[in-house]
Write a structure and sequence with these properties.
Layout lengths: L1 H28 L9 H14 L6 H4 L6 H12 L8 H17 L34
Helix pairs in contact: 2-5, 4-5
Length: 139
């Protein structure tokens, strides 16, 4: 009987070590490289990454396709009320600034001094929608 208890304990310890090693590796590579984040956004990204990764992967918001600032405000407020998130009222503005930059401004070309911005197409500011498929491309 002692042999099976020792074997069970050893297997549980090995499994725990494997899970911890995988989680540690995932945490280090799961977000995005800060090399692509402008210096003025890095502090906001750090708060976003630290707080938002407590409850879900960073891929969840980063790959969501959401571009509506109002939706992000509602979502961050909802997540702030989750006890495990650790999101404080003071974290809200930096998280929202980063999400706005990432979902709306990230792919916009930088303007040279004196250049005027042109208004973006309306589709750039709305969440992705499958019911607005273009019949011309088979969708």
């Amino acid at each position: 009987m002692r042999g099976s208890t020792w074997l069970g304990t050893s297997m549980a310890a090995a499994l725990a070590a494997t899970v911890l090693a995988c989680a540690s590796t995932m945490e280090q590579t799961e977000g995005m490289s800060t090399a692509g984040v402008p210096p003025e956004q890095r502090a906001d990204y750090a708060i976003f990454a630290q707080r938002c990764s407590k409850c879900h992967s960073l891929a969840r918001p980063l790959n969501s396709g959401i571009t509506d600032d109002g939706f992000w405000r509602m979502y961050v407020a909802k997540m702030r009320h989750q006890p495990a998130s650790g999101i404080t009222e003071g974290d809200t503005a930096p998280i929202l600034r980063f999400l706005h930059w990432y979902s709306v401004d990230r792919d916009r070309p930088k303007l040279d001094a004196g250049e005027e911005a042109t208004a973006p197409a309306p589709a750039e500011h709305s969440a992705k929608s499958i019911d607005k498929a273009d019949p011309a491309d088979g969708g």
